[in-house]
Amino acid sequence: MNTAAFFIPAWADILAIGIGSLQGALFAAQFRDRRLDLLGVAVIGIATGFGGGILRDVLLNQLPAAMQSNWYLPTAVIAALVGMFLERIFSRLSKVITVLDALTIGLFGAIGTTKALAVGVPPVPAVFLGAVSAVGGSILRDLLLNLPIAIMQVGSLYAIAALAGTSSIVVSIAFGVNVTIAAVVGVVVTFGVRILAVLFNWSLPEQRRLEKI
Amino acid sequence: MNTAAFFIPAWADILAIGIGSLQGALFAAQFRDRRLDLLGVAVIGIATGFGGGILRDVLLNQLPAAMQSNWYLPTAVIAALVGMFLERIFSRLSKVITVLDALTIGLFGAIGTTKALAVGVPPVPAVFLGAVSAVGGSILRDLLLNLPIAIMQVGSLYAIAALAGTSSIVVSIAFGVNVTIAAVVGVVVTFGVRILAVLFNWSLPEQRRLEKI
Amino acid sequence: MNTAAFFIPAWADILAIGIGSLQGALFAAQFRDRRLDLLGVAVIGIATGFGGGILRDVLLNQLPAAMQSNWYLPTAVIAALVGMFLERIFSRLSKVITVLDALTIGLFGAIGTTKALAVGVPPVPAVFLGAVSAVGGSILRDLLLNLPIAIMQVGSLYAIAALAGTSSIVVSIAFGVNVTIAAVVGVVVTFGVRILAVLFNWSLPEQRRLEKI
């Protein structure tokens, strides 16, 4: 399955990183007991905003995109500090942020999966790498804050939304769909699953063992 | 020291990953308070089953083996879910699992060290990379579960068994032994040290300082 | 901005790694409740001593320097064990160690930033990679010990000192300063900021939000 990567305009990429980073700072604001300083908030912003992309590129054995541009790091740092200072405003906008974030994980997933396919990675790990691109930032954020990894716990389908979207991309491309259309479909699927999961409180079952054996 | 990598048949590789992943899920089952969902169990399975191999390949600056095949990820996910559902059965088989696991860390260590040597890495880091291949999965598992890293604590020689085996491989090859024989010797050494440590409760001393200075 | 990397003599590199590793072991000695064994102390030494260099090289998509030499790993292991055994002596030398450590983060930062520039990384991520080289080891140390990440918390400008030094390098080189002179200036800036911060208790403000909006 040889394919081109799905590129989004630079402003969309920067915007998605900014949203991720801002969210990281809002999340960190709940933990005043950690005594994070301004640099700590910036680190959380960087980790949340493009940690997923860095994990993707490290696993693809490529120089990370964030190391090739002067724009990513300042975007993430400024977005994190804006999020921290204006937390009172953004906390009133939590619905808007949930919607933008659903779009962001859709975009990151689509970029990750198509980049993996473009490099020659087979379909199954390409789906995985798309999901890592989408949710890797939140994993790094939780590790750096010594918190349980949110995406591993019972909650509103976040990584599953990313996996659904990236799987749809691989299937579409296998059926000969053009990569841009496949990517757009993937973003829509991720967005839809995530928003529906939030609205209807969908979640995966908790870990359990069969008792009657 | 130029050498070929030690290859094991694909079925043995897949089996070893399955055993690692299944063990990760059994381990995670002790922590019901974490509220892991099915995806969380799958993530632990993936991390435990081939986290070591991914760390090895990232440190060798190579595209990870797990990103080059459609088989690794489903194997790890299915093994983890089987481990979770059938935990009551497997908990009765803990001796069998300890034996299979000792074999698994031996295999992962041998693959890691010979791959490192084949890439041109010098003997000392090759021993280190073999040990990382063997125990890296358990380190990632503990990080993702916010637990103390088991291999760093007083316990039955686990990483030491891997280091003994991978050291024996490097020494054997330096003495001109064929790579396959050296690898088999390495697996036997790791297996032997680990099983004897479990049987006789061998462990390393705890950290301590000299008091009379 | 095309430039050569700043090389330090091998003995200085080994010494810097030994100081980092020794400090890791002294730090770990505060946590007797973790029941670290000798291997655990060695792992902390390795992570603290050249974790930053490994993160740097992984992010630069290069084979890590530590995987290309037989000297790094034994240096880190021996320094960690010496630190552990002789903790009573070194704890009386804490001022000397603070000074040597300020020099070490300056050196690691200068090596990291100039290596990044030499590989063709733009200025902003080159500053970031220098800081990662300098403080990445302490981040890995804290992760492996399940501790809050020290550099993210209110404390005496540690990462900020590294960022100040690596920024000065990038600015100097942009103004046409020779790489060796720029690197020396960077080490002096990092050293100066760090030591002044310790002496005068300088720190960054804690995370806060604007309340009147």
Q: What topology emerges from the helices and strands here?
A:
3 copies of one chain form a homotrimer.
Chain A: H1 10-28, H2 38-59, H3 72-85, H4 87-90, H5 94-119, H6 123-144, H7 159-174, H8 179-200
Helix pairs in contact in A: 1-2, 1-3, 1-5, 2-3, 2-6, 5-6, 5-7, 5-8, 6-7, 7-8
General description of the model:
- The structure is a homotrimer of 213-residue chains.
- The first copy, chain A, has one domain.
- Chain A is mostly helical and 213 residues long.
- Helix content of chain A is 68%, strand content 0%.
- Chain A contains 8 helices and no strands.
- The model of chain A has no long low-confidence stretch (mean pLDDT 92).
- Chains in contact: A-B, A-C, B-C.
- The interface between A and B is large, with 35 and 38 residues.
